[in-house]
Amino acid sequence: MASKEGSVCQIFSFQDWKASPDPILELPVQYLTHTPSPIVIDNGSFQTRAGWAAPGAELDPPRLLFKSVAARSRGAARSETQIGNDIPNLEPLRWLLKSQFDRNVVVNFEIQELIFDYVFTHLGITSEGSVDHPIVLTEAPCNPLHCRQMMSELLFECYSVPYVSYGVDSLYSFYHNNNQRKLQSPHTGIILSSGYHCSHILPVINGRLDAVNCKRVNVAGSQAASYLQRLLQLKYPGHLAAITLSRMEELLHEHSYTAVDYHEELEKWRSPEFYEREVHRMQLPFSSKVPGGCVSVEERQERRAQQLRRLQEINARRREEKLQQDQERLDRLLAVQELLEDGLLDQFHKSLVELNMDSAEELQSYINKLQLAVEQGRQKLLHSDGAEGKAEPVFNMAEYHQLFVGTERLRCPEILFQPSLTGEEQMGLMETLQYVLARYTPEQQEALVSNVFLTGGNMQYPGMKERVERELLAMRPFQSQFKVTMASCPALDAWHGARGWALEHPPGAVSEGWISRQDYEEKGGEYLSEHCASNAFVPMKIAKPARPAEPPVTMQASTEGPAAITMVTTDPTPPSSTSAVADVTMVTT
């Protein structure tokens, strides 16, 4: 929450959200009909969302939302692994956290199995050794065949699911929002998706993903959070431990924005008035108690003030004593000088000898120095008397523990458009979009830019839609038309779209988009049944080397000498073309 000082200074506190363990839900009876309800899992690299695709619950949110991480100490048992919301605070266990993802592709299937166990258990599935519900699962655009094969093997072999359907999260979001806007199918448009690990440009033509022209940008939310952490740690080296990744993610989600014109916005921050009005002061937690004691900051400051007053009194007395001594010595020297003026030379010379002086000039020099010292002493006393009423400047502990977040609010989201800010040698999101559009005819370009769709958790910055519109205006020909649309809920629309698709396309013998166990066994784990929100399936033939036949070995023993061994080797039979060819899928971007 924010508090304002004179409607100028904005002070915010970190929420430091603590996750609470998810309850184990009861499986509703209506989901156990002769056609079990599908389970929809948005397997995101930042957050996993899971729930049911059941009629009558179209507006319900996902039953489970948790971070896609697992924490297990080295050598710990499988049952001791903490998943998602079982970890109340990520920061103490940051070094133990593991994810199933490498960027946006699942590669660690041991962690993925733990995630599935967590989902199925907390959704109330208690059947031993099997999950009797169809699974709708999201995957990365142009997902590698090996990764899909391993995922299908995990679901069919380990959980014995009846059906699986794979789709791309941003395509589900595109499908969901187009249905909400009641656009006529098949849909054509271009999707700008930005998640936690990477961003994508996905062209969709006549309701199908054009996989050949998809492009990925390796800049997204995690890079923005790391960049913000690096900036603030360099700015506040005294608070390195307090500037955590979790707090940086909170800063990005709650306090950052995208500048419509980056350089123009930076110029505004040069103004002191603009800075004071727009800077966000983030209050770090701190203790007002002295380590090892129970004295508060206010009490300690009062004690320091008392000590300072006593020191001021002691110094004032010393100044008064010194001023008095200097004044007495000056009076004595002036009396000696009067003897010279009165013509009493004998008494004058006698007094000079007593003062250990040689001449009247030396006497005058000492008189001048003492007069200056007396005048300075009087001035100091006057100043010290005036300073007694002044308040002592007090050290503000709360202000010391504040982070002033100024231009960082717009510099970190800007790396999506300028990756070079972080040292990345690659094109930004809009440059990549221009490259993708250039691969189409002018007529196709017009159709694509008429439905530019923004989705993903990293697209939720204020000003993102306006920035994309400005960049498109500069990119497209004069007087050309385009339309930019933001997802109604960029973080959750993928799950809602997958659920809507599952309700409209229930699994069955002739259902499009579903992979049955028979399909898995006959066509392989990499097989994909295409639908409006899936990747493209491009079969490719790969020759498998045939196993050569083992050569027969003949052994002949002789009675007259050592045994003679004769080895007869036959030529291996060449593999037949029919048995050495298999269907494999590959998608090239």
From TrEMBL:
This is Actin-related protein 5. Belongs to the actin family. ARP5 subfamily. It comes from the Eukaryota. GO terms for cellular component: nucleus. Gene3D superfamilies: 3.30.420.40, Actin, Chain A, domain 4 (3.90.640.10). Polymerization of globular actin (G-actin) leads to a structural filament (F-actin) in the form of a two-stranded helix. Each actin can bind to 4 others. Residues 569-583 have a biased composition (Low complexity). One of its GO terms (biological process) is positive regulation of macromolecule metabolic process. Residues 569-589 are annotated as: Disordered. It comes from Astatotilapia calliptera (Eastern happy). PROSITE patterns: ACTINS_2 (PS00432). It is found in: Nucleus. The gene is ACTR5.
